[in-house]
Structure formats: structure tokens, C-alpha cells
Write a structure and sequence with these properties.
Blueprint: E1 4-8, H1 12-28, E2 34-39, H2 87-91, H3 101-118, E3 123-128, E4 132-136, E5 143-147, E6 154-156, E7 158-161, H4 172-184, E8 187-189, E9 207-211, H5 215-223, E10 231-233, E11 236-238, E12 245-250, H6 277-285, H7 292-315, H8 324-333, H9 337-347, H10 357-361, H11 372-390, H12 397-412, H13 421-430, H14 435-446, E13 450-455, E14 458-462, E15 465-469, E16 477-480, E17 482-485, H15 499-502, E18 525-527, E19 533-539, H16 560-583
Parallel strand pairs: 1-2, 1-7, 2-3, 7-19, 8-17, 9-12, 9-17, 12-13
Antiparallel strand pairs: 4-5, 5-6, 10-11, 14-15, 15-16, 18-19
Helix pairs in contact: 1-3, 1-16, 7-12, 11-14
Length: about 575
């Protein structure tokens, strides 16, 4: 009988895995044939997030030249490199274009089709446009994958869960807000992929509270303004009259930092330097475990600082007071935050050239405004300054920090679940919106369609309305009959709406303290409570403790998701080859 591999999820992660199977199969799989079953109700390649059936006004969050699904020599993996076009090369776009998501979906379909075409003879791919409901079967025997609307299961020798972003049941706070909204005729939209949210209940001219100032908010902003007939005339927004008034705030109270608007030139910082494989090995070897803030964050901060100052001293030496070699030696020897701060203060005269990660993370801490209107002007100034800096190569140390963040993320993947703070901080600094989106945000603010609430935003439900306030403007509050939680659901197993994931027996699939599915960092096999890897079940994606920044990445940045895909593909092919050999 031909071996059977079932991949649940045919979006970017499942497609990346298929590409790695095609790359590694000539070396590892010489069996008598193989059936690969892709299970996903959405189109292969694009999946749900990048499907064609969404507004063409929604963009990608990266330049077209910075998006690839193909490996290069910077990816540390055992399998062969199979180079391929970036999005801009494939689509014939300007390299600096922010393509819409429909174009990215077509690119992903191309990657999928190419991977299928590259598979050796005898390996066949079948797409099942259904939802997977359950997986069952003994550890040492064939698995059964039950599909919606199909009376008999798919039989699988191996199963890989590549589910992507998940819908989730409401947490207690969200459930209470939803119940209050139902009881009082209000509108409450919980965390969701914004393109899937029903926004029709958000009525023209009425205030809407929005909690969340990241990428989900940017999508919401577009769908409630341009998608409702408004348009931009230069730096001015011309309303259609169909827009609600958005009152947005968050923990930080500011939008994510703009994408950097210039290219890298010259020598790259030699990374990793202070947080590389050796340091990760030492952390993993600690008999008492490690604490992120105490043991990991100091290494992260030192690595990011090294990237920043390497660029500043080597490219902008006129803004430093000592030679790079002297600074580097003292920086490497410095112990503790206070010692580093004193060294930097003596060597870098302008505070604007110093890296202050705490100030970046909490830009409005201690900042107070006398009125709501003063804050509107103040935050517009903050956004304008961010845009200026992020598009000025004189501050190219910021781009070096971005490269440092990518390097750090690739190392931290090996540590498993390190809590949610790091992932949010990374996204805030490294995965912010395109500069044009922030300029649109400014135009909407000047037009009165967008109002800023501030940092430490709190929302209460009382007196038949939702009420929001923030630390930034003492005494200010705004009431509304609608509240939108502008963020993706937390990727926890326990609250996932995905029936298959929630149905995994607890004794076969362990969770981390943050509710992520535990997997073997070596190859993605699902771990049980005793830490034993399941021989026939794998998982890849944001719902696991091996989550990475994304299923695709910038060229020549190591691509930790590519490394994971390769390891899983090789482990799966080796298992299936042994199985085929036994049965021959």
C-alpha cells in the first residue's frame, strides 16, 4: 500500500512544507510512491489569509522585494537550496511596492504549483477542500483524519498540522463584554482576522472604540474609510460620509513603527555576536531552566545594541566620540544595563543616536496632555517624526536593529515558549505598517475621522454604553455603542475554535504555560506531557511553541520558518521511506 501523508492547512506554511518535500525527496524518498493529501477549505497556496476573496485595498505589510517563499544559502538547514523568485521578481512589480494581498495569494499559488511540479514521479498531491475535524489513531499505527462532510476518514501514515492563524473562543473579559453588548443592544467585535469581520454594524458618523493599534487596526481603518467611498487628495482625506469616527488606543497608545523606507548599503553587522547558538545551548542546558527577563532579555538587548552601534560607528563616525574598536572592546566587556548606558553616554553625544529599548517600548510613559485636542496634535507629531526617521538613511542604525531583531528571533525559536511579550515587541518594532498607511492615518486624524485615545487604554461597560479612557489624557473619556478589538486572537490551544486541535487528547499533546502546543524543536513532532515526541504527528505554525515571525520572509535573512519546514520535511520523508522499504 502506498504511504499516505496528510497536511492539514494548505496556506503559506503548508505550501512551504510542500516545497521542502519536493526539494528533499530526490535524496530521501525512493519508495514506491506516495500520496500527499492537503486538507484546507481555502485554495492551496493562498489559504485563508491570502485568498482572492478580500478587498484589493488591503496591502501586504512588506515591500515586494522583501517577500520570498524560497530558500537561499543563509538558511541553516540540511536540505538543498532551491532558489526562486521574490514576489517582485515573479509579479514584475517595482521592488518597493506594497503589493495587495490578492497578488500575494497568486504568488503563493505559483509556489504551490511549482512545488507540485517538482515532486518526483510517483508522488501525487490531492487537495480536499474541507475542514479537518479530528485526528485519531495509535502512536505506532496509521492515523485517521476525519473531514467535514466525509463519512470515512483519510488514512495517514503521518499527519502534519499547518493550521496557520486560528479563530478562538472569547476569554472571560471578552465574553463579559459580548454579553453586555447583547443585553444592551451594543456592538462588540472580538479579536479576529479583520477581513473576516462583519463591519456593517459600525454606522456612519457614530463613535467606535478600537482597542489595538497594530496591523489589524490598519486593515480596519482601510475598510471603514476608503472601502466606504472616501478617498485621498494628496495629504488630505475626503470623507464619503459613510465613515464612523474611530477612537483608537492601546497599551502603548501609538501605532507600530513605520516600515523602513530605504535600502541597506555597506557592511552588515556581524550577527550573531552576543546571542548565537552557543548562548542558546547554554540556556537550554541550565538545570533550573531560565527566566526570559532575567536570563534572555539582557542577551537580546546586548545583541540589538551591538547591531545599532556597529552601524553608527562604522558608517556615521562623525556622530561618535571614540573609535569603533575601542567602543566595541568596552561594550563587549560591559556588564549590566547601567554600565552599558554609561559607556554609550560617553561615546555617543546625541541622545537621538542612542538605542533606548525601554523608551521605544513605552514611548508615552509619564507623558501627560492637558486636553484631548492637545494629544491629537502631539501624537500626529510623534507619527510624523517616526516617518521622517524611518525614511532617512542618516538613521540607518535603525535598519541595523531590524536585522538584529531578525537574527535574535531566529535564535529564540529554539527556546520554545518564552511568553507573548517578545513577539509583540518584535512586531511593534520590525513588522509595522507601510509608511503610506501612517500618512493616511495622519490625514484621517486631521479630517476628524480618527481620534487618538492614548496609552494604557481601558474599556468599561456601564450605563448602557462602552466607555474608554487612558493614562495619557487625565480626565478624558469617550462613550460609544460599538467596540472593536483590533487584533488577532491569541493562538492558544485551549480556546481555539479548531475542532481538530482542541480534540487532541491532553495525554498525547502537551501545552505550554501560555497555551501553545508543545513540539520538538528539532523537527516539529508533537510532544506529550512526558516530553515524548509523537512518531506520526507534527505541527508547524503560530499555535506552537516553535512559532516564527512568518511563513515567508526577506531574502537572505536565514528564514527560521524555512529551516523548520526543511527539518520536518526531512523527518517525514525519512519515516515514510523506511515504511515503504518495510512494505516492499
Amino acid at each position: 500500500m502506498r504511504p499516505q501523508l496528510v497536511i492539514v492547512g494548505a496556506g503559506p506554511r503548508g505550501t512551504g512544507l510542500l516545497e521542502r518535500i519536493a526539494a528533499n525527496a530526490p535524496e530521501l524518498y525512493a519508495g514506491s510512491g506516495l500520496d500527499i493529501h492537503l486538507v484546507d477549505p481555502h485554495p492551496p497556496g493562498a489559504g485563508r489569509i491570502w485568498r482572492a476573496a478580500q478587498s484589493p485595498l488591503l496591502w501586504m505589510n512588506s515591500h515586494a522585494e522583501d517577500v520570498t517563499m524560497f530558500t537561499d544559502e543563509t538558511v541553516r538547514m540540511a536540505g538543498p537550496v532551491r532558489e526562486g523568485p521574490t514576489l517582485h521578481e515573479w509579479a514584475g512589480l517595482d521592488a518597493r511596492t506594497f503589493a495587495d494581498r490578492q497578488i500575494q495569494g497568486r504568488y503563493l499559488r505559483h509556489v504551490h504549483d511549482r512545488a507540485v511540479a517538482d515532486l518526483p514521479d510517483g508522488i501525487t498531491v490531492h487537495h480536499h477542500p474541507r475542514r479537518a475535524l479530528r485526528v485519531s489513531g495509535p502512536r505506532e499505527g496509521r492515523q485517521q483524519v476525519w473531514l467535514e462532510g466525509r463519512p470515512r476518514p483519510l488514512l495517514a501514515d503521518l499527519v502534519v498540522l499547518a493550521l496557520g492563524h486560528l479563530d478562538a473562543e472569547l476569554d472571560p473579559e471578552q465574553a463579559a463584554l459580548a454579553a453586555y453588548a447583547d443585553a444592551h443592544g451594543l456592538v462588540h467585535l472580538p479579536p479576529d482576522f479583520t477581513a473576516d469581520s462583519d463591519l456593517s454594524a459600525l454606522r456612519p458618523g457614530e463613535p467606535v472604540l478600537v482597542r489595538g493599534f497594530g496591523l489589524a487596526f490598519v486593515d480596519l481603518m482601510v475598510l471603514l474609510t476608503e472601502a466606504r467611498g472616501g478617498h485621498y487628495d494628496g495629504d488630505t482625506y475626503v470623507p464619503s460620509g459613510q465613515e464612523p469616527v474611530l477612537y483608537v488606543g492601546s497599551r502603548r497608545g501609538v501605532p507600530y513603527h513605520s516600515k523602513i523606507g530605504y535600502d541597506w548599503t555597506g557592511e552588515r553587522p556581524p550577527l550573531p555576536r552576543f546571542l548565537g547558538p552557543g548562548e542558546i545551548d547554554a540556556l537550554l542546558a541550565r538545570p533550573d531552566g531560565f527566566d526570559f527577563r532575567r536570563d534572555v532579555w539582557p542577551l537580546v538587548a546586548k545583541e540589538l545594541g551591538f547591531a545599532h552601534y556597529h552601524r553608527l560607528f562604522t558608517v556615521h563616525p562623525e556622530r561618535t566620540a571614540v573609535a569603533w574598536r575601542d567602543f566595541e572592546e568596552k561594550y563587549a566587556a560591559a556588564e549590566g544595563e547601567a554600565e552599558v548606558r554609561a559607556l554609550v553616554a560617553a561615546a555617543v553625544p546625541d541622545p537621538a543616536d542612542r538605542l533606548d529599548l525601554a523608551a521605544l517600548d513605552h514611548p508615552l510613559d509619564g507623558v501627560r496632555y492637558g486636553s484631548h485636542e492637545e494629544f491629537q496634535e502631539g501624537l500626529r507629531g510623534y507619527i510624523e517624526a517616526d516617518l521622517d526617521r524611518r525614511h532617512d538613511p542618516a538613521y540607518s542604525a535603525d535598519l541595523a536593529v531590524f536585522l538584529g531583531l531578525l537574527s535574535v528571533y531566529g535564535q529564540l525559536v529554539r527556546l520554545g515558549d518564552i511568553g507573548s511579550w517578545w513577539h509583540g515587541f518584535f512586531s511593534y518594532l520590525a513588522s509595522g505598517p507601510p509608511g503610506p498607511r501612517l500618512r493616511q492615518m495622519l490625514a484621517l486624524s486631521r479630517a476628524g475621522v480618527l481620534r487618538f485615545v492614548g496609552a494604557g487604554m481601558t474599556v468599561t461597560a456601564e450605563d448602557g454604553v462602552f466607555r474608554a479612557s487612558a493614562d495619557t489624557v487625565p480626565g478624558f473619556a469617550v462613550e460609544a455603542r460599538a467596540l472593536v478589538e483590533a487584533r488577532l486572537p491569541e493562538p492558544t490551544v485551549g480556546r481555539a475554535r479548531d475542532a481538530l486541535l482542541r480534540g487532541l487528547p491532553a495525554d498525547e499533546a502537551a501545552e505550554t504555560a501560555d497555551g501553545l502546543l508543545r513540539v520538538d524543536p528539532a523537527d516539529g513532532r508533537i510532544l506529550d506531557g512526558a516530553g515524548r515526541p509523537h512518531p506520526r504527528r507534527f505541527a508547524l505554525g503560530p499555535f506552537t511553541n516553535g512559532r516564527t515571525p512568518g511563513a515567508f520572509t526577506r531574502p537572505r535573512t536565514g528564514g527560521p520558518a524555512f529551516r523548520q519546514n526543511d527539518a520536518t520535511a526531512r523527518a517525514a520523508l525519512a519515516f515514510l521511506a523506511d515504511l515503504a522499504g518495510v512494505g516492499s
